[in-house]
Amino acid sequence: MHAKYVAALTIVAGLSVGAARITSQDVEAGRKKAEICAVCHGLDGNPPQPPLPILAGQTARYLYLQIRDFQQGRRTEPQLTPFVKDLSQADMLDLASFFAAQRARPTAFKSDEAKVERGKQKAAETLCTMCHLGGFMGQNEIPRVAGQPYEYIVKQMHDFKYGRRTNDAGSMTSVSKTLSDGDIDDLAHYLADLY
């Protein structure tokens, strides 16, 4: 066999094993570990009330990275810190796998049709689907934002815009700085309305 071919196969096999670690953790172990999360995020990752994010159906990779970022202080939420500070990597992967395997449910938010239309236009203008994909279902490290609570969407966009959240590669920070408060409101109506 040609040496370059063997080297390429070795790299691909290594990447596949690394990806498997992120996506094939123990969902049932995650269910047990998630019991403490239920008070705020609901038993299945659908929070009982806004402005908390829906974890159900989120990408496992994104969830893992966010838990890790909270633990390491790259993202802050004082109420969450005590719950994540002692988690092992296996705990974080199990939790991420559990919540990713759950089904997101629609919120009770009633959107404004005119704002939804303006939000849809602004999303197209700012090329949101380049990262969040069509339907805003997310991919890998990019979150699913479709159907997230209106209040959560507004808070996160403001946090990116005003530098209170910086644990991205700069994409959301750059985009959000171009948005007015009205744009953010419109986008939040549009995204909260998607399912």
Question: How would you describe this structure to a colleague?
Answer:
- This protein is mainly alpha-helical and 195 residues long.
- It folds into two domains: 3-100, Cytochrome c-like domain (Cytochrome Bc1 Complex, Chain D, domain 2); 113-193, Orthogonal Bundle (Cytochrome Bc1 Complex, Chain D, domain 2).
- It is 56% helix and 0% strand.
- Helix 2 crosses helix 6, helix 4 (60-72) crosses helix 6 (89-100) and helix 7 (113-125) crosses helix 11 (181-193).
- It is globular, with a radius of gyration of 18 Å.
- Residues 1-23 have low confidence and may be disordered.
- Along the chain, the helix and strand elements come as HHHHHHHHHHH
CATH level 1 name of the largest domain: Mainly Alpha
Proportion of residues in helical segments: 55-70%
Largest sheet: none
Total helices: the number is 11
Rg for CA atoms = 18 Å
In terms of structural class, how would the helical and strand content be classed?
mainly alpha
Counting structural domains, the number is: 2
The chain-level mean pLDDT equals 89
- Shape, principal axes of CA atoms: globular
